[in-house]
Design goal:
- It is a single chain.
- The protein has one domain.
- By secondary structure, the chain is mostly helical.
- 85% of the residues lie in helices and 0% in strands.
Length: 40
């Protein structure tokens, strides 16, 4: 069951990434910014 759930999550993530091909860089920037703020 866990393996199936993981595959489903990856499939959904891939669909979302395909829909938003222009936003990954923005998301990476925001994510790294949040990580830096949390670490300080």
């Amino acid at each position: 069951m866990n393996d199936v759930d993981n595959l489903n999550e990856r499939f959904i993530l891939n669909k979302v990434l395909i829909k938003h091909k222009k936003t990954p860089m923005i998301l990476l920037g925001v994510f790294s910014f949040i990580l830096i703020k949390c670490s300080i």
